[in-house]
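Narrative progress, year one. The postdoctoral researcher (J.K.) led the effort to move from monomer predictions toward full complexes, under supervision of the PI. The following entry was the first complex the group processed end to end, covering 1147 residues in total.
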Amino acid sequence: MGNMKLNLKIWRQKGPKDTGAMKTYPVNDVSEDMSFLEMLDVLNDNLVRKNEEPIAFDHDCREGICGSCSLFINGEPHGPGRGITTCQLHMRKFKDGDTIHVEPWRSAAFPVIKDLAVDRSAFDRIQAAGGFISVNTNGNLVDGNALPIPKVDADTAFDAATCIGCGACVATCPNGSAMLFVSAKVSQLSLLPQGRPEAKERVLNMVEQMDKEGFGNCSNTGACEVECPKGISLEHIARMNREYMVAGVTKK
Amino acid sequence: MTKLDSKIPEGPLERKWTDHKDHIRIVAPSNKRRIDVIVVGTGLAGGAAAASLAEMGYNVKAFCFQDSARRAHSIAAQGGINAAKNYQNDGDSTFRLFYDTVKGGDYRSREANVYRLAEVSANIIDQCVAQGVPFARDYGGLLDNRSFGGVQVSRTFYARGQTGQQLLLGAYSALMRQVGKGTVKMYDRHEMLDVVKIDGKARGIIARNLITGEIERHGAHAVLLCTGGYGNVFFLSTNAMGSNVTAAWKAHKRGAYMANPCYTQIHPTCIPVSGTHQSKLTLMSESLRNDGRIWVPKKMEDAQAIREGKKKGNDIAEADRDYYLERRYPAFGNLVPRDVASRAAKERCDAGFGVNKTGEAVYLDFTSAIERYGRTQANIQHIENPSAEKIRELGTAVVSEKYGNLFDMYENIVGENPYTHAMKIYPAVHYTMGGLWVDYNLQTTVPGLFTLGEANFSDHGANRLGASALMQGLADGYFVIPYTVGDYLADDIRTGPIDTKRDEFAEAEKAVKDRIDHFLNNKGTKPVDDFHRRLGKVMWDKCGMARNAEGLKEAIIEIRKIREDFWKEVRVPGTANEFNQELEKAGRVADFLELGELMCMDALDRNESCGGHFREESQELEGPQKGEAKRDDDNYAYVAAWEWLGEAGKAQLHKEELTFDVVKLTQRSYK
Amino acid sequence: MARSALLGSSLAKKYWMALTGLFLSIFLIAHLAGNLQLLDMSPDGQLKFNEYAKFMTTFPLVKIVSYVLYASILFHAFDGILLAIQNRKARPVRYVHEKSSANRTWYSGQMALLGTLIMVFIVLHMKAFWYEMHWGELGMDSNGNKDLYTLVAVTFTQLWYVVVYVISMAVLAFHLLHGFSSAFQSLGANHPRYTPVIKSVGVFFAVIVPIFFALIPVWMFINA
């Protein structure tokens, strides 16, 4: 096993209504090859053996694509390191003897379920409000190549589409704003010709839902772009701002 | 033995699906409103099915255990999706895709199903483009293709290394559109814990709300399981942590046959295990084998020195390297299919040539590619007599452009620069071809219970080709089930809502609650993962890349022991009425412990080698194919469908004979 | 729907913040251009400045613009308060440990605080000069214009006043350092070719304008 000793300060909260508090857990034998979540697995394993409640946290694919894992580690979403999610954070980023703070995402729109797990269904509701192209399943659609799409538009749309919906943007934003998330979807679909016909309704509806969910407002600090594990650019927020303004002015 | 009716339509292969669609019954729009359908799982198959059925007019309830439908593990697929579009004018066709898939599956799949899959593949691309899936495009703005998995045509559509993500988000957006309209009621953070049968038909499910712990009854006229594969029975796999067999296993216990459970795909290029703390394995895209060369040292002492950390891969002279795939399979070299590449790596490591501390890793080396690309670049840039460093620099840039994100991922996990040190890779469990037995309509042996995507057994035979899983999931969800489910539901237009107060629901609910109570009140001492790890080790060692009768018999005994220990010694903290992740795991591992035994039984029964299933007793003993897998078409050209007989380890085998009217059975040769 | 899109929504708040902010930035240039006349401390400079002050307080077009200006200041502040409240509510439970230095400049996260300080300064500033000019008892210069110049010169003989001015201009500089380019982003102007230009102009503007503003009291204090 490994040889690092760490001092973890972890947010514990029994349920949504509990107030919760930070609790300290020393862990030994941490190997630098472990991922951060594997380190938590080891801690949980020990807690169960001691008949204590393990720490609840969301995780699934453990390869940085499903967007389940969250965790605000040492003051940053997904911890130190850029372009990675918590499951891709490895313990070699830390030193023997380090103290590590672990907290859940903090947002009025992401209530804590238990310990480090939060409810991000607000994102689903925003998506349901307009994050789609209204096309039914249809075996007789026009050929995929009937409408060429300039490569640069397709590539930019793809950049936006890489969003994994983890919520790090909201977590790190000093205002708890979800604009990077919303704009990524708005931007992707507005860049593609298939998405243009409903572009106005889409952006108006998605922003309306975003506001209803209680997210904060964007003040362009750019923190989201820095912390986004997929490097989604602020350029998409600007595009959403444009799309929304045009929609607001011209919508019949 | 009961005869399994696969309901394959009559007529010539290429007419079967069209004729079938033309003649099966459909439900009128006004009647669809009176029919409820449950879809469990929201990956490619489930998401696509739920969205399609809802827009057709059915009332759909969709369930997933993740916190959002968008997180299903389809999202992790990297490489691409096949479709017979022939955009590249390289001679691709529906028939060729069909043929490649049947051959790739080592002739253990149904011709009719595979042909249908190939037939609808082109529609999938059109559908996804219309949904806004940003596939890769060329400079003319048209869709780009690449060649994948060693086939001879370029038919793979892709979105960088994140094709699964983009396709899933397409299906998810279609699903969320229906949720917004109210035609789909979405139940996330819900886990299905049983199927409820009334008068022999599937009429609903029991599900646990994972946040509140509440056990809920949901009735419907049909239940669709789209719950993915069971690779996590091996504990370590490339599957997501939550991927499980529970839904399929409960269905199996309610009468759905489990088909070919032993067919497991082991992917050759994964990052090796680094220690006992390991929770899951990470896949490195198959595309790396297009440029990387796989090798181990020729000399045992070199391998030993590397394992002890005294030497590095770079210290081994070119002449002392064994590029074993190129040596054994000169025609295909490093591009042999997954099962062949995986077994060859195991063979070398078992012989003592592995190159990391556990002895279970081989090198995937880009030195030659870097050099080759570097020289080309030097020519393009008109650099005369470039230095070795310059060539390296230019070549590294090209490799980085192609695989940069994968190299970064590797360095992040392993902590070693793969541009200067050859990558270490080892095979890992990746996909399960086996699954619930379904007929041509995707219906299991339980009427009203359908299975889609990886959860069923139907299209990949004994080995799945690269970029075909996404194709199958979406084909089932978008273009098969919307037709075939109607044929079944046509009888239900007068049934009315399913009454969840009936005894059948009460009984199923009680069984679920009893099991949960058992876990929570058990006076054990060990966490769930202890038993899962033990099971995984037995499965990997004895029912993994190579299997033999003796090992499988031992495995069955060992699994029984683990199962016994599990029920006695497991400790699940917390309560039933809260978010309790240990409790979730306990239920899943309990089912894996039963499935594992059935997989060994199936592997034991199949005394031949085919695709991902390699029986050491069944290999070529002489001739140019010596040591290669040997199929036995006379005795094993069947689908093994297992019926649950009331307790684990007691299952009855039913055989569905496979007939091949179009494809001629030959030995797969990559020499 | 379309109405709330341009008034009530979160994005609308951004637009108005940006538009009023940019207008105020333009005003800063005009204001600075006028004030730089104060650097000429000769009797002739005094008369010219007072003449200019009279023009600025009586010419009808300037008056109209000044009302737009007052409205902009108030709206910018009011909108800012709304935003601050909304943002505060969006995170009812704060982090125990937050490392904001990892991903943003400190001033980009403190626009409300910087804005409040600027507002305090504006009140002080307007009380000292604007109020006196309009309703105070100012003497007349030799041309018969209100002698605002002397009031300014006398005010800037007080060290504490000069210090307050210089500090306030530093606060303004940080507010502009984020605010200038941020306004363009809010209005949707983000382009790989032009955004770097906007950012550079923003930095230049945020540094130069406050420095010149601060130079005036310092200059007058030293040369008094």
